[in-house]
Amino acid sequence: MNNIIFDSTQSLLEQLANELLRLSESEQPIHISLSGGSTPNLLFDYLANSHFSTTINWQQLHFWWGDERCVAAEDPESNYGQCKQRLFDHITIPEDNIHRIRGENLPEDEAIRYAREIQLSVPVHDGLPQFDWIILGMGGDGHTASIFPGQTNYEETNLTFIATQPQSGQLRISKTAHLIEHSKRITYLVMGASKADIIYKINTQNNSRDLYPAAHISAKTGLTQFYLDPESSTLLPKGKK
Ligand SMILES: O=C1O[C@H](COP(=O)(O)O)[C@@H](O)[C@H](O)[C@H]1O
Question: Does the keyword Hydrolase apply (predicted)?
């Protein structure tokens, strides 16, 4: 695992924000996929409440999501809804740069519609749309996006699929492992003490691909890294730090 351990949550967030700032200086549009769940909220709050809210050139950044819950945008479970309230409502970004998964739509239709939007907007490399940067989270069970243990079809060549959250049965729309692995760069953002156990497991066990998808989904030709804060990395043995 390519673990990058920061000495504080603040320095991790600052690093991400500076990377977004640098990317926003590009002459080409940059396609970034955000994770869902609670972890990225720290980043959204940091961006919205710092000089980055105005120094980043948001015009150049296009935002996508790794997965979305099949709920309306106003629902507290909506990944897009969280990001809108915490970040987009506080910055100046063109509507056209926000590529949300429409969780309120019929999942079967939306999975196809979102795949088409990706195909039409994201530059294709070797026959497949290639994101500049996919930021992912990791659940305590090792899932990432909505790619859950025991449910991952690594052979699936579609861009999106419909997943079922194993405990709640909630339907979700997710990017496939195939599409994620084609990204130029993947950064897993893993913060907080509740993730220490799973970080220890994926770094010390010899796991099958089915057990912890986040331990196996990596950029085939690009960079994969784990950005960890002190709390999530606390159980890592010395050699892994
Ligand atoms: O269900 C989800 O959880 C993971 C991790 O979420 P977190 O709340 O522990 O940060 C996230 O990567 C995924 O996008 C999300 O839908």
Answer: yes
pTM: 0.95
Average pLDDT value for residue range 181-200: 97
Mean of pLDDT values over 98-113: 98
Q: What is the average pLDDT score of the chain?
A: 96
- Cα 51 to ligand 1 centroid, rounded to whole Å: 27
Residue extents of the structural domains in the chain = 3-187
Distance 168 CA to ligand 1 centre (A): 14
| Yes or no: domain 3-187 corresponds to CATH 3.40.50.1360 | yes
Q: Please give the full DSSP string across the chain, using - where no structure is assigned.
A: --EEE-SSHHHHHHHHHHHHHHHTT-SS-EEEEE--SSTHHHHHHHHHTSTHHHHS-GGGEEEEESEEESS-TTSTT-HHHHHHHHTGGGS---GGGB----TTS-HHHHHHHHHHHHHHHSPEETTEE--SEEEE---TTS-BTTB-TTT--TT--SSEEEEE-TTT--EEEEE-HHHHTTSSEEEEEE-SGGGHHHHHHHHHS---TTT-HHHH---SSSEEEEEE-TTTTTT--GGG-
